Amino acid sequence: ASARAKEERFGFYDRHADQALARELSLESELRDAIVRREFVNYYQPKIDMKTGKLAGAEALVRWNHPVRGIVSPAEFVPVLERSGLVIAAGRQVMEQAMRDWREWHEAGLKPPQIAVNVAPAQFRCDSLIGDIERVLRMADPALRPLSIEITESSLVADHARVVEILTRLRSLGVPIAIDDFGTGYSSLAYLVTLPVDVLKIDRSFVMKMAHDAGYMGLISTIVSLAHNLDLKVVAEGIETEEEAKLLKLLRCEQGQGYLYSRPIPAADFAALLSR
Ligand code: C2E
Ligand code: MG
Ligand code: MG
Ligand code: MG
Predict the structure, then answer these.
(1) pTM (two decimals)
(2) ipTM reported for the complex, 2 dp
(3) Locate the EAL domain: which residues (predicted)?
(4) How far is the CA of 91 from the centre of ligand 3 (A)?
(5) Ligand (nearest to CA of 89)
(6) Within 6 Å (CB) of ligand 1, which residues are found?
(7) CA-to-CA distance for 34 and 41, rounded, in angstroms?
């Protein structure tokens, strides 16, 4: 084919690729401004003790309070933060905000629970992580263990010795570590079980299917047994029905999180919930 024909053949696709790249770059530059203008806000989703039904913790979930579009979901911008490296600066703000909110609730006598913050792979690998965490812990009260972190399997597949070192240092700061979306990655169980972590979080995609699919019920039951044999706790995410809650309780899952109990809510609403 002539160069001309080739251009006609592929020009269409190239233009789409160009448009996608242009969108990515413009979103990236908007996000850079969002960091400077501090447009990110934390919402908090309660974690419930499955045995007592009481509040056992909360997860901080970032939203972008966009000047024109209003509240934007993390699905739309966290991947761009991750690809651009901006997640390090943005993640630092999420952690700061979580500990500032925690301290405010604490000072108001509201007895805030431990708050889990999601840490992206680039943040986890970043040399400043431990220092950042020490700093935000001092904003709250480190002795009351105000912070935990959630990381995904992809953070853990790097250099084993370094991963173990980071996890061990976090633990020594009194910051428990959960493996988020457990079972959805491709790392081997044999590898994961050698790591010093505290909690396995069962992904919503498994919880969604458990009531109708015995295979998923078996899978969750296996994850819970594995966790308990290793002295880890289990948190299930995405619980939407009483039936799912009942099954997870039967399986001895310690904590649950999902729309059945509450959606992620703004800090002021979470404070109201604490004062009830
Ligand atoms: P994730 O950490 O696995 O968080 C759980 C997601 O499931 C949240 O979505 C939560 O709102 C949603 N969820 C909880 N219960 C239910 C339920 O019963 N039904 C349904 N349909 N959904 C439920 P969200 O807030 O949109 O966050 C999506 C993802 O964005 C998070 O998944 C996490 O990977 C990422 N993310 C959110 N905040 C941060 C952050 O501060 N830093 C980083 N690095 N990632 C974040
Ligand atoms: Mg999470
Ligand atoms: Mg999760
Ligand atoms: Mg998930």
Answers:
(1) 0.94
(2) 0.98
(3) 24-276
(4) 16
(5) 1
(6) 45, 61-62, 73-75, 78, 87, 91, 94, 118, 120, 150, 180-181, 204, 237-240, 257-259, 264
(7) 11
Residue with tokens 């078996």: 218
* pLDDT tens-digit map of 168-178: 999 999 999 99
CA of 243 to the centre of ligand 4 (A): 20
Q: What is the dihedral of CA 141, 142, 148, 149, to 10 degrees?
A: 110
Measured from the Cα of 257, ligand 1's closest atom is 15
Tell me the pLDDT tens digit for each residue of 152-204.
Answer: 999 998 788 999 999 999 999 999 999 999 988 877 777 787 899 999 999 99
Choice from 40, 118, 154, 180 to test ligand 1 binding pocket (greatest atom count within 8 A of CB)? 118
Q: In which residue are the tokens 């899978």 written?
A: 219
